[in-house]
């Protein structure tokens, strides 16, 4: 892979080979998918839709945008649910889906890294890493091609059609974030087209904050000086607003910035050795309290979970309903009668023989924890083969899908109705308290809901399903109260979905005005014309 | 009730491609799974045992790696597992496979109910179950969807036929081939999983089952595969343009022309 020091480089603008669609009418009629993401909100007034194939193409678009004073919205896999990729102020829309090549792989000081264009889908990336068939012309080092070791890229957002660039721009998480951490932990380099059309190259470790500023050399002219944020982030899984830490790296300011600072065009990621064998299970509890207690015990215990996920009684009832109405096609197994369920996933990390003994010992650890927490190992599920693992993954995915189906029906009655889904996380010690708070308020307001998600990170999604407009208003108010409570406990208003265009009100609950002003100052320094992704985050 | 379930490890055919030059299946990198219809047979066995009590044995013939699918069977509650693995078994067609399986079944002995998936998703022959019944000289009921009743000497099953179903009563021992069940294979319980690690998978070779090696594997297989290929698809899309009336007229003339 070619090596360049971090800095800002000139790029020759070129429009060659790029598909462009002009005209609001045509775009709305023939390319309406590009105006939406999973939030189902549709953008308007897009005058030109670009499908760049090269960095030079993007530089050309930015030149045009600056010259013509057009706003630019960047779109990846459109799997976000906060409308980050939805054009908020018309102008230009860039789909990066044609930039999806792997550019190189290398091993340097024992670390295996891969560089790819931003538009590659995570599903494609992971299958290429697994098969070691990268589809590249450059030579793959023999340490990789000949090695029998299997490598992987740990971030596992549920939507595998998400693009690499999109997941870096949003610092995406997944169920295994509990063990592996979010996308940020695996990004070692990025290349970003700035609003000026210049290319910013960043390698982790090369541009640290010094005396309140980041200083980036330019190929020509004076360096770019960016102020460092000084506000304190919650000490939880967190994805709301720009990253801020005392001694931070400039690369971290861009990761999770939701596109407001630049267009991430190339990403270098770190790949790690895949565990020898994954295994998992689902434990069923007669009381929600026991399930929560189980999570506390898991944290203290010997078992090392990769993921710990929750299903409350309403989520389980929804799954049972889907199973009965769809029959065997649903792939949902019959769930024992219970009030709460916890999914866990773990792994045997090395190929130790005899394998059976290791696995038995691992499952015995879980059995002990289950018994101590008042669960029943007779009814608990345990899975080892890939197909069963996939079935459980599908089971988790089926919860939000089922909610969305119900919401779609409610929407027929009243078009204003939508799902009110939280993305709140709190520090470990406050899980019980926040759960109690959710329950009390949901019961008092009598709004249908399901609670599910990443309980291992104290990051539960409360999905409220309003039946009418009055309930919608009350659900939104509940969200605000949940967010306020979480912040008072040291938590965050968004742990993984980001802020996008829909959750800015909650950012204001999390941070005081001066923190948001700091974000604005950074934005003004890097994108002074306020061209990029208007309406996102701030 | 002494129940036998035969399982086969197959490539996940949803992920298999055909090498267009050699006309063979590209198996590299394709995950192996338990044949889905064999999973239906196992689920049926578990349901029957929950009513009648007794024992379930799982049996397969294959490479040493096939032990995985037997382990899956044990984790679901099978009581014993046997793996027929030997180089003389390799390359078997349905005749050699059914001979080998039947010799193993005779050796193990004493089964009341023998369950097979209707067919395997790799070969799709649907021959092995009925051929084993032939070798053993016992009745066979194919296309079974569920078991309606079990009594001391007889079993009543429902089988799928064209335009309906048929209820069949059979005496033990009987071999059933099972179609995709209404109920997907259950997920192992934690207790079942833990218990399964203590159950050995017994490996059997040609001599262990007293088989004639000239009737096993490639030597015992008269079938020759000449070619495997994907059928060519000739479907074409034609867009009909114009107003609704014009489109309707054009469509009618196209349909009449066929």
Portion of residues within helices of chain A: 25-40%
The total number of structural domains of chain A is: 3
Distance between the termini of chain A: 36 Å
CATH class of chain B: Alpha Beta
Mean pLDDT of chain A: 94
Instruction: Give the CA-based shape of chain A.
Output: globular
Looking at the structure, what is the overall shape of chain B? globular
- CATH fold naming of chain B: Rossmann fold
Number of helices, counting only DSSP H or I runs of 4 residues or more of chain B: 6
Cα end-to-end separation of chain B: 58 Å
User: What CATH architecture label of the largest domain in chain A applies?
Assistant: 3-Layer(aba) Sandwich
* Main interface by residue count: A-B, 32 and 23 residues
Strand content of chain A: 15-25%
Percent in strands of chain B: 25-35%
N-to-C SSE series of chain B? EEEEEHEHEHEHEEEEHEH
How would you describe this protein?
With 538 residues, chain A is α+β, with helices and mostly antiparallel strands. Chain A folds into three domains: 7-95, Uridine Diphospho-n-acetylenolpyruvylglucosamine Reductase, domain 2, CATH 3.30.43; 102-135 and 142-273, Uridine Diphospho-n-acetylenolpyruvylglucosamine Reductase, domain 3, CATH 3.30.465; 277-488, FAD-linked oxidases, C-terminal domain (Vanillyl-alcohol Oxidase, Chain A, domain 3), CATH 3.40.462. Chain A has helices at residues 24-30, 55-68, 122-131, 142-145, 164-169, 177-180, 250-254, 288-300, 313-326, 355-372, 386-413, 431-445, 469-488, 504-510, 513-526, and strands spanning 7-9, 19-22, 46-51, 72-75, 91-95, 102-108, 111-117, 151-152, 187-193, 199-203, 213-216, 224-227, 263-273, 277-285, 307-312, 340-348, 381-383, 420-421, 424-425, 449-454, 459-464. In chain A, strand 6 (102-108) and strand 7 (111-117) form a beta hairpin. Chain B has six helices and 13 strands. In chain B, strand 10 and strand 11 form a beta hairpin. In chain B, helix 3 packs across helix 4 (128-136). Chain B is globular. The relative contact order of chain B is 0.18. Classes of the chains: A alpha+beta (538), B alpha/beta (258).
